[in-house]
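Subject: Sanity check before I submit

Could someone independently write out the structure tokens for this chain? I want to compare against mine line by line before I put it in a report. The sequence has 189 residues.
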Amino acid sequence: MEGFNIYKEGIDLQLVIDACQKRGKVRHLKKGEIFEHEGEPAQWIGYIKSGYFKYVVHNRIIGKDYSMAFVFNGEMVGDYPFCFYGDMSDVDIVSGEDSTVYVMDGKDFNQLFEENIDTMRLGKQYAEHLFIQAYTRLLNFYRTDASTRYKQLLQRCPNIVQQLPLQEIASYLRVTPTTVSKIRKELLG
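---
Independent answer below. Compare away.
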């Protein structure tokens, strides 16, 4: 999904894509199948050949799941950087539709970034861009309202409404599907 994940803008990820395709193995996941599970050691990273994944966090206080992030075909999937060290995953990474991924062990992937100074720079750049994306999203929860966040999402990736169900978009924005429907009506009206 073009424009959704801005972390990859300005980074040449061909090295990591090639590593997953050459060193990894192909894995086919059905819709709803878990790629990584909350509370278990994160261990995989992959390049999505087709499909998409959602990162789901469980709010134990209210007993509700939230889709906090999505990755689409042509992007990387994994609980980065926890998969490098086998640390416990804080999220479920779930296939949003039937998906195909080139998967490799996170520890092997981490070694890729330690091969030479150029790969170290790439790893640093990758981590910085992921941080900027996450930090910007966090700031937007404080500096904008749901309607503005929805409009910004549509500006970044106008086709998101064809790719994701209404309830997933609402969950990502941390509002109800009814709220998203009202915002859509206001935009059309």
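---
OP: Matches mine. For the report I'm noting this point. DSSP finds eight helices and eight strands in the chain.
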